[in-house]
Amino acid sequence: MEPAGGVSDAELLAAHVAGDPEAFTSLIARHRDRMWAVALRTTGDPDDAADALQDALISAFRGADRFRGDSAVTTWLHRIVVNASLDRRRRNSVRYAVSLPDESLGGEGALVDARDRIAEREDQIEIAAALSELPRHQREAVLLVDVEGWTIEEAAGMLGCPPGTIKSRCSRGRVKLASKLGHLRKNVRERNPEGPGSVKSPKGGDEG
């Protein structure tokens, strides 16, 4: 998307680096809604998403001079938001793991419910940690397609590579995630024995 006048994202970023006090604000205004959506989908929590987005904006503002133009500015911003969101989840992991909700004191049923929610949050933290350990190109593909719900073709356009490469990166990333997170399938079945408790089996890939 470009504003009236046809100034590109890359031109706005370059103007910011050159000292234009309005350029960065204009760039972020253009993409803030999408950045927020990425942060919310990655963190799963509005408060964490707001904090992650703030962290990402600071990183982008300070690190704009390191942008080399080897990808679209939107891809660069997406990477910064995803990394900030994953960092936020890791920093919060201890607090999430040890804090009990107030209703945990309300009886046996409430305790069971509290344990279930804590276990679910711990699963989410473990998934985020596993994602953060993937090679960057695999993590980006998996997050775009499996977490954020973009199509293979849309993800390919964002990352500037062929759809077949995205499929391969997703496949390889899923295999690695399955090896790290396979035990979570058993945990879900134990907490919800009548639910589906199923996780997609990874499909083979040829490059990535």
From TrEMBL:
Residues 27-93 form the RNA polymerase sigma-70 region domain. The keyword Repressor does not apply. Pfam families: Sigma70_r2 (PF04542), Sigma70_r4_2 (PF08281). GO terms for molecular function: DNA binding; sigma factor activity. Residues 126-177 form the RNA polymerase sigma factor 70 region 4 type domain. Residues 184-208 are annotated as: Disordered. InterPro entries: RNA_pol_sigma-70-like, RNA_pol_sigma-70_dom, RNA_pol_sigma70_r2, RNA_pol_sigma70_r4_t2, RNA_pol_sigma_r2, RNA_pol_sigma_r3/r4-like, WH-like_DNA-bd_sf. Gene3D superfamilies: 1.10.1740.10, Winged helix-like DNA-binding domain superfamily/Winged helix DNA-binding domain. GO terms for biological process: DNA-templated transcription initiation. Keywords: DNA-binding, Sigma factor, Transcription, Transcription regulation. SUPFAM superfamilies: Sigma2 domain of RNA polymerase sigma factors, Sigma3 and sigma4 domains of RNA polymerase sigma factors. NCBIfam families: PRK09643.1 (NF007225), sigma70-ECF (TIGR02937). Belongs to the sigma-70 factor family. ECF subfamily. This is Unannotated protein. The lineage of its organism: unclassified sequences, metagenomes, ecological metagenomes.
